[in-house]
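Researcher: Go.
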Amino acid sequence: MKVLVTGTAGFIGASVASRLLERGDEVLGIDNLNDYYDVNLKRARLERLLAYDKFTDLRRDLQDRDAIEEAFRTFEPHRVINLAAQAGVRYSLENPRSYTESNVSGFINVLEGCRAHRVEHLVYASTSSVYGANTTMPFSVHHNVDHPLSLYAATKKANELMAHTYSNLFELPTTGLRFFTVYGPWGRPDMALFQFTKNILEGRPIKVFNHGRHKRDFTYVDDIVEGIVRTLDKVAEPNADWSSDHPDSATSFAPYRLFNIGNGNPVALGRYIEVLEECLGRTAERELLPMQPGDVPITSADVADLADYVGFRPETTVETGVRHFVDWYREFYQV
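Model: Structure:
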C-alpha cells in the first residue's frame, strides 16, 4: 500500500513507518521537525527511515493547508496514519495555543485531505488522557469521556469528535487509538523513563510526583506499533447494532471505531523505578513531590475490544521493555 504517515520523526511515528517499510509498503512521511525536544534525536530516527528506497521524507507543518493538500494530491495515499501532534500534559498548561494549532487545526487538514482524495482508512492517535476525571477501572472505550483534565486531553477528544463527523458526512472510515503511557527505545526525552535514566546515570536526583504512588499502564512501543498496523489493515465499518437510544461511544452507525492500546496491567511508579535501577545497576536519589495539575493517580486499559477486533493484546512486561530501553540508551548516548 501507499501510506501517508504524519509525525515520522517522532517516537511512535518513526517505529510505525519502519514497520510498514519492512513489509514492503511505500511511505510518505510528514514532519515539521519542531524543537519541542532534541531535534538531533528526531533526525537520528529519520536517518534510519531514509535507508529505505520506498520512504519519502517531507518537511511540512500540518497547519500548512496548501502543503498538506499538495502532499495528498501528489502521493495519492491509500491509507493514512496521523501521529503528528503536540504531546505532553504538563506542557499544555504552559503553551496551550500550540495544542490547538497542531492537534486541532492540523488535524482538520488531514481530514480534508482524506475526504478530498477518497482515502480508504484514516487511523489517528488519541490518548488515555481523554479519560480525565473517570475513576472506574479499567478504562473502557465504552465509557463517557466528557471531563478532560488538561487541554492536551481536550484536543484529543476533539479529534475523536471531528473524525466521527467526517465518518458520518463523507463515509470516511476512521479509527482512533487511545495510547497508554508509551515507552521504549527511541523514546521522548520529556517522558519519565528517559529523564529518570539520564538523571540516575548523571548522579542527579529524580523527581517523583505523587510521592511515587502513581500507577500507570506502561505500554511498550512495539506493542503500540503492532496495534496500529493491525487496525490500519482492518478498515473501520459501521456497527449494524448501534442504537441512538443507547449510543455506544466506541462505535457508530458510521464507519468509525475507537480502541485502547495498553498493557492492561498497571504498574506502580515505584516498581517502575526499581526495575530501572536494576537495569542500570544504580540506585536513584528520589525527590518526592505532590501530584501535578492535570495528572491522574492511575490509568488502566480495557483492551478487550482491540483483542476481539484484530486478535492482538499487548503483553510486553516492564522488566523486558525497560531493559530494551536502557540497552538502547547506553548505545545511542555512548554511556
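Model: The longest helix spans residues 96-116.
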